[in-house]
Amino acid sequence: MRLVLFGTSGNQAYVFASNRLREAVGASYLISEATTSVVRDLGKDHEAEVLQCSSGSALVVVPTEGHARGLVAAVTEHAVRKAPGLQVLGVHMDIGAVPPSPDEIREIYRLWRWHASRSVGVAARWPRLPVVAACGSTDAPAAAWYSDSVPRRGTPSDAEVPRPLSAQVIAKRRARPAADRRMKALLDRTPAGKGLRLVGTAELFEDVEWVGVVHADANRLGQFFVDAAGLPNTQMGALSTAIQRCAENAFGEAVAQVAGLAKRTQELPVVPLVIGGDDLTALVDGRYALAFTTRYLTAFGEYAAADPVVRAAVHAIGNGALTVSAGVAVVKPHFPFSTAYQLAGELCDSAKSVAKEHRGSHALDVHVLLDSTFTDLERIRQGYQVVDGDGELSVTARPFLVPTRESATIPPDRDWTKLAERLTVVREMPVAADGRVVTRTQLHALRDELRRDVKRAERRLSDLKRRAVTEEDRAMLRALAGDSAGVRNGTGVLPALDLLELAEFAELEVSA
């Protein structure tokens, strides 16, 4: 028996070769298809048994080396023809039995990484000599004149005029309608998403003030599959399909959450890029980004706990629960999308670092890019460290933890459930109102002072407490302070800033 692993590399460079969303949607679709339906369809001709497949990777078993070579040739040739510019690499090795052992799975992933590190880059496929026209969307050489639409009679509009485009850009644009159809079908087969319709990719940026770039990834799922392979009677293909179904159903729940908040079922401000296995990448109206993300996290956990195949594997391994980490980068609509996605990925990694310490809990990290001077997370978070007379303080408690039934004790400042309750109070702050002293102007000033002069922020908060006479003002101040008496708590964290920065984007409850 031969174990075959397919994987794509350079995904981020492929998806974000240009800053055009329509091309990113098509590119994400091509990546997903290359290691899911393409592997399944072509595998039928090579007697392949699919053990696991998701967007970007697939693991299958075939009877002989000849079958393995034939399948690798077929899948990679399909990628060259249908998805030019996408790097798909297949490797195979001999195994003793099906399912493969955990050591065999680890070895084939090591083998894939070794070959991937030595493969020739995609840029070498398109030399620029002899001189050829440049692509109108990327820096690759043009392959043909192309337009997304057929020009009407008379003078065509600017959008209808053909332009010189590269082969990979043309493939991405041609794939976008199929990506839209797939997403419509995906929503209709989920319990919560049936009948819901998403906004077009072009319309999203026209209708929103902020865009939330969401990237979510299951915690330790690779190790989970390795451990599951060592269990007796484990059907790896069924387990992979079950986890994919959990992710799709969770996405449907998240979209339904947005529908409830937006109070409509059509033209919902969500543009998914990747929903594959445990991965989710989507663009969401900034107002609903946190609600969308937290609902996805909790729903994934709920569906995984309810699925008999997943539940049996989790119980046998002793993991406690399958959990997800997510990063949300909230940016202005015209901010470079590739940079925002990179920040969302760094935020997801940050959330995973906390999830490791708190098994059984989901994790969430978020940043609102009010200042684009720095866009890498390490530099951004350095700006959240302030020094006063008592030493260094952190003005953020992020990343947050989203509890499940399997969660152990969570630090109060990191507990998203408690923070969300306080956010719903803080987001109701008025611009100005008779008899109110805690207004939006005061809280904006407090937010700035927390980053620059903690002592001054404490004096402002004390003054507001002294002057507050209405119950609304007192409730607002209690929400800001949380379990602490002032702007700081006993662990050297100033949690009030998280509330002040995120309140605008915390429309968390579905309206009745």
Automatic annotation (TrEMBL):
InterPro entries assigned? Cas10-Cmr2_palm2, Rev_trsase/Diguanyl_cyclase
State any single GO MF term. nucleotide binding
Enumerate the Gene3D superfamilies for this protein: 3.30.70.270
Domain (Cas10/Cmr2 second palm): give its ranges. Answer: 211-355
| Coiled-coil residues | 440-474
Keywords attached to this Swiss-Prot or TrEMBL record, sorted alphabetically, are:
Antiviral defense, Coiled coil, Nucleotide-binding
Which Pfam families did the record assign? Cas10-Cmr2_palm2
One BP annotation, GO:
defense response to virus
Task: Report what the protein is called.
Answer: Cas10/Cmr2 second palm domain-containing protein
Organism annotation:
Gandjariella thermophila
